Amino acid sequence: MSFLRLVKVSSLVRRFGDDYENVFKAYLHQAEEIEKLAKEKAQQQTTIKTQVKAPPTTNLDKIDVILHANNTKPKLIYSSTTQQIQVAIEEVLLSTNSIYKRDKNTTENPITPGALIERLYDQWNKIPEIKIKDINFYSMLRTIWIAPYTISNDDFGTFQRITKSKIDQHSPFFYGPLTDNIYRELALETGENRSGFRMIRKIVDHMSFHDFIPSKELSETLIKESIAGRWPRLLHTIVEYVTKKEVSISHSQWISIITFLRYNKDLFFEGAKLFDVALKYGAAPEWELFQPYVSKFSKHYMTGEAASLVKKARDGVNRYYKSQEEKTAKICSLTSKFLSCLMSFNEFDFAQEHLDSLIVSENYSEDSIEVALKFYEDLKDPQRALDFFNKVVNKDGFVYTSRFVVSTLKMCTHLGKGGMQIVNEIKDKILTELQLCSPFAINMIIVTYSYSEEWSIIHDFLSSCISSRVEFNRYTPATIRKTVEKCLEPLKKSKLLEIANKIEDTFHKTEAR
Asked: Is the separation of the CB atoms in 57 and 64 below 8 Å?
């Protein structure tokens, strides 16, 4: 009837005559078609608006994530309280995880909360209205994961935790996978907070559920925070997980891990089992790595266990280093420190056995001989030192070297008068083979003879060195002056001071040239 109001019947009659009824029906049909088209167009516009609110799940990193983040932006900007901001983020996380759960098995690239969080974080730093609220984004995410405001009735299923023997419900806000960077940001500085323990456990359980392979940086962050928070069992779980994923950890981190577990009563022996894993995934076979457990075992007379660890270290050296020189040097260095450790706990006999084994296995190499000389220096047993010295120098094919001379003289300075027989032999040897007569060796001989106040021997030795034009260094005159202070014979003292002045003048002339 609305159409009849627009068209006067009289005008139709005047214009079309008796045929006006057919014309009227045509106009009516046309109006109905127009109205139908208008309704269809309105329906299409409504569908488009609905599609914008519920974006498609394709090309997610470029479309869906942006739409989700942009739809959340007004809520974040106009939120007046921290609670409102948190609720807005919870809403978008819940929506994203619901879409991921729905599409993860049917869509090629389902929307992930990790991509959305990174987009939100980007907005968080760029939009002044949000940034001015001075709220840490990842701190809020931790709060949402542990104690959210929003209560969801959606069932996201259960999963088996690895940080605890328990089957737990999935968080509706963090069901889907996250990125390496997000895990790391969530873990940072949690070791200083009371709630950090729960946060690290949630991260590790979440990674385990998604079979996530963490980066070296993320792994070390989780380890660092667990040590800072003093959570040994959680640390052990993390180490097991990352090594199972074949992730390497830095040498310094391995030292921190093993040292931390060594001081835990419950996990002490679990930590002792980690050395093979440590050497496989990033640790170098250095003494600092083994020292905490070797010292502990030695202290409690568990020398067999301590030696077993040192053997693992030696085996690690053979795998870690390529050249034979490096291998020998490292093995001898490890053994020397192990011997010092044993001696500090009075395990002298066991240390001697271990030293003898090293000497034989290394076939009296220069490095192994130096280890032995250091051992007898610490032992301060002149007779054992003399026996070893004679055994070495009388061995077929042995050749004196400057290194052997210096190491032997250094040992003798700790043996007192008991080492004078060795010093006499060294003195006679270097005067016949002047290439062994280094400035350091000369100074050591002076110091050693001064212990027994052999001033005449020192005078004759220095005179022979001067006549042979042996090279001195700037410390020789000072060494002479210091040692003769206790000389009670004025004539000998003046002669030695005269030699000191002569050596000093010669040194200055040589230096001036």
From this structure: yes
| 190, 161 Cβ separation under 8 angstroms | no
Provide the token pair at 66. 């942006």
pLDDT greater at residue 232 or residue 470: 232
CA distances from 168 to 42, 56, 171, 212 (A): 48, 31, 9, 18
3-state secondary structure of 15: helix
Place of tokens 């029906």: 25
Q: Report how many helices (DSSP H) and strands (DSSP E) the chain contains, helices first.
A: 27, 2
Q: For residue 233, how many other CB atoms are within 10 A of its CB?
A: 15
Instruction: Kindly tell me if the per-residue pLDDT of 3 is higher than 80.
Output: no
CA distance linking residue 223 with residue 228, whole number of Å: 9
Q: Mean pLDDT lowest for which of 64-68, 114-118, 220-224, 332-336?
A: 64-68
Q: 394: phi > 0 → left, psi -120 to 50 → alpha, else beta; which?
A: alpha
Token pair for residue 7?
């068209």
33 pLDDT exceeds 80?
no
- Distance between CA atoms of 481 and 227, rounded to whole angstroms? 54
Q: Which amino acid is at 424?
A: N
- pTM score, two decimals? 0.76
497-510 b/e with 16+ CB inside 10 Å = b? eebbeebbeebeee
> What are 62-120's pLDDT values in tens digits?
455 666 676 676 767 666 678 888 888 898 899 889 888 888 887 777 778 888 888 88
Q: Between the CA atoms of 190, 196, 202 and 204, what dihedral angle is there, to the nearest 10 degrees? A: 50
The alpha carbon dihedral of 493, 499, 503, 504 has a sign of: positive
Q: Which amino acid is at 75?
A: K
Whole-angstrom distance, CA of residue 475 vs CA of residue 411: 20
Of 501, 486, 405, 491, the C-alpha closest to 451 is: 486
Adjacent-strand bridge partners of 160: 167
Polymer length in residues for the chain:
513
Instruction: Check if the beta carbon of residue 386 is closer than 8 Å to that of residue 422.
Output: yes
- Residue 31 confidence (pLDDT): 65
**CA 461 – CA 455 distance, rounded (Å):** 10
